[in-house]
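Contributing new records

If you add data, match the layout below exactly. Sequence lines come first and carry their own label; structure lines follow with theirs. Keep one chain per record. Anything else will be rejected by the validation script.
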Amino acid sequence: MPTQHQSDLGEQGEELACRELRRRGYAILARRYRTRHGEIDIVARDAGVLVFVEVKARSHQRFGGPLAAVTRLKQRKLTRMALDYLTRNRTAGVPCRFDVVAVEVGERQPRVVVVTDAFPAAAR
């Protein structure tokens, strides 16, 4: 169970990620899309491509940066959740990709890095 600090950091990270994605021209379609496998942080559209976005926010580097947290296991879970979204929304066949937004929140201004097409759909 996440602590209140982790929940607050996650919400702040998602908000900063949405702001940056909108600035880049993405249309936000859904936030916190829940499936039986977990939750997709952001579903967006970018120039005709459906984008499943994983947001990783960190306030320190003790366990590696935010991008290191998107493990192969997490990629497989995201793939299953994306398939759920595509099925429920009857969007199968639509081009899609996985982006990761790394948010580093510290004593200075937050740093937001968008990794486009961060990984391919993972096999089950």
